[in-house]
Every structure is written in structure tokens, then in C-alpha cells.
Amino acid sequence: MKDIIFAMAVRNVRINLLRSILAAIGITIGIISIACMGMLGSNMTASVTESLSAMADKLIVSPYSGKGGGGGPPGMSSGSDNLTKSQYKNIYKIASKYGYVYGVHSIRAKVKKGKDEWNTQVYGLEVSDMKTILNNLTSGGYPSSDNSVLIGSSFAEDNDFKVGSRFTVGGSGVKVSGIIEPRGMSMDLSTDNAVILTKNMYESAFGAKDEYNQVNIVLHDINDADAVSNDIDSQMNRREETVRVQDSSRMVSMISSSVSTITSFATLIASISLLVAAVSIFNIMMMSVTERIREIGVLRSIGTQKKEILRMFVYEAALIGILGATLGMILSLIMGYFFIHIMIGNTKYFFTYDSLIHLPYAMAVGLIICILSGLYPAWRGAQMDPIEALRAE
């Protein structure tokens, strides 16, 4: 009997083929919406995480600013705003076993080229630190003297600077020895629009000898971030708050989490289309029951059980769902690929588990909603009195 019931369900879908296809298209649209948004979210999260991972292994230690600070002439670093030589040594002692530690001078200073004058970010680093941290140059080399500087790629392009170009920074003449490759957004050093002086040159121009605006730690293992932060905090801030530790990995996690939340919300909005499809299937199944009252009466009068009538209509809803889900999966795979390529610029993470898992997930949701939409009409058809059904016109 089961095969006969299924065959009747297939026959009924074929008889009302156009209506069934329209209902299936509703499911298809819903599945495409959910799957594409899910895949877009996964690919965007993976892409953002990869972009930010380069700065996730860094800790930045800076002076605690709650006490207020110092003063001093414009353009000069004040001691109360900096980490002292003693503090640097303590931080180095604590953190050097976990990664590479270096001090950073930093200030906004005037840069002059001919008659043009503007403010830009200026860093002061040891040449050895430059070679370790800024180890990718597009051209030139590292400073061989105190009046040689590195500049960022955007700074060079915007101001038409090349290796050998000369300009004035902080009142002192300097020459470009090298240009740094683009580094993008970074928690430690934002060099794209900056000038990097040697430590001696910086201290000569801006003071703050052996005092640093911040101390950066590049971790060997990102999992040590909490341990280093806790060690520095417990030893440096034991009596009073003197330093503040920023963990860039937490920032990366927050940004990735925010992207995931936004895409999850967008997926939820997209799922509304499945509710519209559910209403359409419910309506079609109710129409099917109403149109086939006499057929139900005949089936019941020859001994067909209620559960078999119920199963016949559920089969019909399932067939519509399978048709829509299959079409939705195929179109989601094609449309999702091109959609992600356009939105993100690459499909590096498209064929990964986290991305493709949204296809069967969306199919399952669409199929379940389709079957649930057909349950009440199926139950109603199964509960009809056979005599009353035979009397129906």
C-alpha cells in the first residue's frame, strides 16, 4: 500500500505541475537567500580574520593615562607621558621570553618639503628593530646614518618621494633610505603614512631620551597573550596603576565576532522568504484537499486508513520540498560563488567546510518548513468522514 500511496502523491504533483513548481520556486528562493547569506558570512569572517591575524600576535604596553600628564613644549614628549628606561627594562625582563620586545618613540610632527608643510606620524626606532619589524621594503635599504629615514608607501606616493629624496622633519633635514611595503591596519605601527627615524635622530629632534611612548611585544605564540598580560599587570601595577596592556588578539576576536553577528542577522532576515514560501505551500495543500474531497471519500470507502491519507498529502508536500531544495542547492552554489567573488574579491574560503555547510543546512530548513506547512492540510484530509466526502460536489 505504501508504494501505491507514494505513486498517488507523485501523480497528484504531476497533475498540478505548474502549481507545484511555483510552490517549489518559493522554497528555492528561500534556500538561496539563506545559503548565500550564510556562505557570505563565513567567507567574510574568514577573510577578515586572515587580514587581522597579522596583528593578533602583538601586545602594546603604554603608560597609564589615568593620572593625567605632564605638559612640555609643543612637539616635545613629556616624561610623564612616556615609559621610563627602568619601566622598559622591567617589561623586557618579563616579556622577552615570550617574544620580541622593542620600544617605540611616537609623535605627530611637522614635515616640510620646499614651501609645503604638513603634520604626519613620526616614529623613532633602533635600526635593529626596523630590520626585524619592518622587514619588507619596496625599494632602498635601512638607515645607515642618523639623517637617513624610512617612509611608508602611501606617504611616498602622496608626496612623490623616492629613495634619495630629501625633506625636513622636526626642523632637521633627512634623506629617504628606503620605502616600506604597505602594512595596512596595524595595532603596533601604522607606517603607511609615517616617517620612521632612527632612535638617536628622534631623541635629538624631539627629546625623551631612553623614554618610550609604548613598548611592543611580538609574541612567538599567540596563546601566551593572557600570560604575558597578567605577568606585566601583576608586576608593573602591583602598587599603583602605571602601565596599560592592550591585547590585539582580543580586538581581532571582537571584530570577527561583530562580522559574524551582522551576517547572522542578515541570514535571519533572508529566512523570512521561507515563511512566505510556507504560506504558499499551505495554501496549495489546502486547495488540493478541497479539490479532492470526493477522491478522499472513495479512498476511505475502500478501506484506506487515515494515516495513509495523511501520508499521501505529506508525500506531496515533501516532493515539492525536495524539488525546491535540490534546485535551491544548485543555484545557491552557482550564485553564491559569484556573489562572494563580487562582494569580497576572492573565493579562497568558498570551498571550505564552514562555507559549504550552509547548503545542506538551508536545504534541511526548507524541506522541514515545506513538510510542516503540509501537515495541517494532510491531517484535515485524513479526518474527513467518508460518507460526507462522497456527498461533496
UniProtKB/TrEMBL annotation:
- Compartments in which it is found: Cell membrane
* Protein family membership: Belongs to the ABC-4 integral membrane protein family.
**Statement: the UniProt record of this protein carries the keyword Cell membrane:** yes
Tell me the organism: Methanospirillum hungatei JF-1 (strain ATCC 27890 / DSM 864 / NBRC 100397 / JF-1)
PANTHER family, per the entry: ABC TRANSPORTER PERMEASE YTRF, MEMBRANE COMPONENT OF TRANSPORTER-RELATED
Phylogenetic lineage: Archaea, Methanobacteriati, Methanobacteriota, Stenosarchaea group, Methanomicrobia
Protein name, as recorded: ABC3 transporter permease protein domain-containing protein
Supply the Pfam families for this chain.
Answer: FtsX (PF02687), MacB_PCD (PF12704)
Q: Which residues cross the membrane?
A: 21-41, 262-284, 313-340, 360-379
> Which part of the chain is the MacB-like periplasmic core domain?
20-233
Gene Ontology CC terms, in alphabetical order: plasma membrane
Q: Name one GO molecular function term.
A: transmembrane transporter activity
Primary location: membrane
Residue span, ABC3 transporter permease C-terminal domain: 268-386
Membrane topology recorded in Swiss-Prot or TrEMBL: Multi-pass membrane protein
| Record key words, sorted | Cell membrane, Membrane, Transmembrane, Transmembrane helix
